[in-house]
Amino acid sequence: MVDVRRVVVADPIDAAAVARLRAGPCEVDDVSTDPSKLAAALPTAWALIVRSRTKVDRTLIAAAPHLSLIARAGVGVDSVDTAAAGERGIHVVNAPAAATASVAELSMTFYLLLVRGLLPKIASTKGGRWERGTSGRELAGRTVGFVGYGRIAREIARRLAPFGAATIAYDPFVSAAVDGTAIVPFEEVLARADIVSVHAALTPTNHHLLDARAFARMKPGSYVVNVARGALVDEAALLEALGSGRVAGAALDVFEEEPPMNQALLEHPHVIATPHLGASTAEAQARAGANVVDEVLRALRGEPLQAEVPPPGGTR
Fold this sequence. Notes:
The chain is of the alpha/beta class. The chain folds into 2 domains: 6-98 and 282-301, Rossmann fold (3-Layer(aba) Sandwich); 100-273, Rossmann fold. The chain has 12 helices and 12 strands. The two termini are 22 Å apart.
């Protein structure tokens, strides 16, 4: 065991959070501005703080023999090999609530842009045209169907209520909602929703959950929004569904490959594409940094962790 508990900050997090960490009972090695220094910092690392850039795989974990804690300053932990960490007894924590408001707001923005058909109108007006007439529909009276009903989807449902939109959801881990959202089978979400909004965690069993078969079951003229993980949606099948008109439009903040290479999808006139920025507001990043530093400090003091992610198939 190393004499000093050294916390390595591999990816950029909020400066105030780093400053608070430096005041704690540890040494801080911040290599976030120079990733080439990470390899030299790992052999003495007691804790590792990452965001999305650093992939914590078996090789990285093996290079850190004293590692006790991995802190992901974000919601998903698919960039961390939690199985390899579990085998070593390394604790993994995240910041599950940090980006809730930011991702909910982006989702609401997507819904309004899609339903009102605003993106083409914005482009045409900026291009010097004045194309008036009936454009899109109201969000009021539409049904939003969530695929995954966790913290973010519940916050979106709360924000949708004043708009007069109905909400339904599929989530195999939720039997009933405490709000007005109806928990229904996956097929019913596809058949009833005007907007299918994806908020599930990516697992080995739900890769391409929205595939050609799912798109064929969707309500004709519906929309797809994905702010979760790109691999939940089969992009080739989505492109075909857009071409057939089964799907009227899509808003994607995440892609199977990032940066995305599917130019046909990116350039489709009914696709809104953003560069995985759902959690990238200043407020969300400040909360994420603060939350993971809170967890690191708890671990340093020997206190119970509050945002621990159990290894696959087990609990701590």
